[in-house]
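Ligand-bound model needed. uridine-5'-diphosphate.
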Amino acid sequence: MEKLHAKKCRRVVLVPFPLQGHLNPMLDLANILHSRGFSITIVHTKFNFPNPADHPDFQYVPISDGISNWDISASNLVRLASTINTNCKDSFRKCLTQMMQQQQEEKQNDQVACIIYDFLMHFAETVANQMSLPSIIQRTSNAAALLAFCKLPRLRAEGYDCLQDSTSDELVPGLHPLRFKDLPTASMGSLDNFLQLIAVVCNTRTSSAIIWNTTDCLEHSSLTQLQEHYNVPFFTLGPMHKMALAKSSNLVIKDDNNCIEWLEKQAPHSVIYVSLGSIATLDQKELTEMAWGLANSDQPFLWVIRPGLGSGSEAHLPEAFQELTGDRGCIVKWAPQKDVLAHPAVGGFLSHCGWNSTLESISEGVPMICKPYFVDQKMNARYLSHEWGIGIELDEVMQRTDIAKAIRRILVEEEGSRMRQKVIALKEQIKHCIKEGGSSYNSLNKLVQFISSL
Ligand code: UDP
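Prediction:
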């Protein structure tokens, strides 16, 4: 199938959720649609907003969110989503009304075709519906996670009281291979509030399609089950960072590119890359265990210690750590993660298993050590270790001996080579998905046709 472009110049309005892991796939989608002839407007909160200079071709429109400062943590995420949905609705309506008036007055060609919103920004659907504009949901996490979320209310109604048991190894009925301890219910604050949010995000309401940052080759079974449940077309465009021609945008910290120079000096597959994403935190004991785990592994490491990863503004590493590890280690505040994972020196990724990090690692054929925390991360870790066989799961309690051992298993031992072979096979399948004729490529063509027909 040839590459399809928008029939006439149409505008799509994108509404991202203001966290790095949500913004990245939304900006990737913006880049993808822009390359297919659509004009792009990003409507964003004033809190945690992307840098317009990173994408000068896009129009950026801020909306009021009533948030001056927010301590981002797992227990706070449900409240953040609810606050934004309450506070942004009126401002979004005003902004859209203005855009439409301007369109009419100036007889612009690129009329708004639809609103595409992150699944957590559901106020956008309400407003779009009121203004008779079509809306499409973007799912920034994976299909298996949505499947699990949709089952949670029913499990609760059926009396499963191990829903909040973070130690239960019992398999969740109908959600193979997940165990109760993989579900996010123990880490998200009040279960009632979490289930309320889930009820909203599992409902497509009047939205006319769902765009996924996943691929058929990774999630065929979950996607098929969900498609039976949802009566709207699915467009699976993942991994979107591979489909997009341009880079996304950092929210807070700049990439430290010095680590690429350091990687240049390392042997192939010799380095463990360590990053826990943009939200997860470590207490002082965990930070110390991680530091000693890296030191005792005797392997080169690249460690992202972003401001706020440890308790306090600066992370306190053990005194002898620097002396002991010397040039064997490179520590940065923020890494150009996709470039790091694509570097031949990187042999493993010790990760919190956020969905973006998971996709980015698989796309580059890098096996993982999984230290998940909240939302979908434990489910992703279970898929990585149990379903795809490309990850080693660490215990809930972080211990230096386990960390050092897992690093050596991935980088030095036969087990790591086997995992690398498996993840490279998945990387090849992903390459097929995104190239001409592949499932993600075809899905994008169908999405372009779909939006052009709205
Ligand atoms: N990221 C990055 N540099 C870093 C750490 C993270 O560029 O040093 C990016 C990473 O590539 C990914 C995103 O931040 O695209 C994190 O998203 P993810 O879903 O993995 O985790 P979250 O931050 O949402 O927990």
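The chain has two domains: 11-162+188-249+432-453, 258-431.
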